[in-house]
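ESCALATION

Customer reports they have been waiting on this structure for their group meeting. Please prioritize. Original submission:
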Amino acid sequence: MNLEPNFETYEVNKIINKFGNEKAFIEFLQKNILEFLSSKKRNDMIIGEQYYLGNHKILKRKRTIIGEDGNKQEIENLPNNKIVDNQYARIVDQKNSYLLSKPMTIFCNDEKFMANIETIFNKSFYRLIKNIGEDAINCGISWLYIFFDENGNIDFKRFKPYEILPIWLDEEHTILEYLIRIYNIENYELNNNKNIITQVELYTKSGIQYYILDNQNLILDNSKGFKPYMYNSYKFPLSWGKIPVISFKFNSKEIPLINRVKTLQDSLNTIRSDFMNNMQEDARNTILILKNYDGTNLGEFRKNLSEYGVVKVKTIDGNDGGVETLKINIDSNNYELLAKALKKAIIENARGYDCKDEKMGQNPNQMNIQSVYADIDLDSNLMENEFQASFETLFYFIKKYFSYIYKKDFNNINIDVIFNKDILINETEAINNCVKSIGIISKETIISRHPWVSNLKKELNKI
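Update from on-call: job pushed to the front of the queue and completed.
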């Protein structure tokens, strides 16, 4: 790690100098923050997370009818089911579990470094990475902050994607110039009144500058000011050399999964809800025709038909009064066929897989299994490429940390990460292939491909 003199002002002043003065820089930050808070990109992130949680558009739906004036009006005496058939959340869990449910395999040419890596990459870390993957799928991009805990050990924190405004140096969004985090905190005053404060944090290479967004005005937070990321034992501020916040992308364009399937998911919810409405309300099944009980004009006719399921008609001579019924049969098959088609479209557009596919039941050989997984494997390969680049950046910080702890240069160490995808296999076929490979390839390679082996190193030691 590097020691930098005048650390607490150097990096921020360097950024400010590009804008001429501090006022111009704060105005630039304020403009970008306000645009980001109301941007479509941030709104898509929030929608992605909300749809994963089950908060869909259908939950805000209101029942309306055609009023006497021909315009729509809200009505409360008709069934208004709001059914959420959350296929989107199912696909998110599929993708996340497919790529990140199993611990990654790490190869390193330095045994000491590898032993220390295993202490960091524990179960808590893998759970964090799985949550990072969930954020990336829902929001298009996720963020991991690296810091030191109270004991001086390296630790990690997950930032909410819709709180992060990155300022990139390149068009490919690979190098951060600086990063802004915007989030709300609750502050209780002496009279127990809750006050919401919008905190703004500016992450630079050398530390964090704190601001407050008050009534759309960005002001310096003098109570916090500027803080470096860490100090050494002599209270000297230390720098990582890079901003210790890493992006993990779902794809190179940072497009959330919800953008592919939102309209299909909304349509599926609507079909489910409409079918339940029609099964519950008489107006759609049986219409009463009241003969010679006053006539009705066209506007009143439409309103009565929608609201009460009753139509009043009058014959020419006014005789022959009575009540008749008009039956309307609802074919549930039509709803089910449409719902099935929408589910299939969601799976195809989200690039998931259908575990009830006929190929899985009739003849589950490895070729059929791979064809079912083809779409999700394609998507996971793109996500894996992005995550590989992010792990390369993560290892930069871990090497820096170990170099500082052990006073040794670890920069020349090669580290490879393999994501163990959770794909179904035909175990009998896989074991037979392993047996047939004996004498052709190495024992280590054969054992690594055996479906019952989860840890190659431990298995070789047992043998």
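Sent to customer with the following note: The first strand starts at residue 2 and ends at 3.
Escalation resolved.
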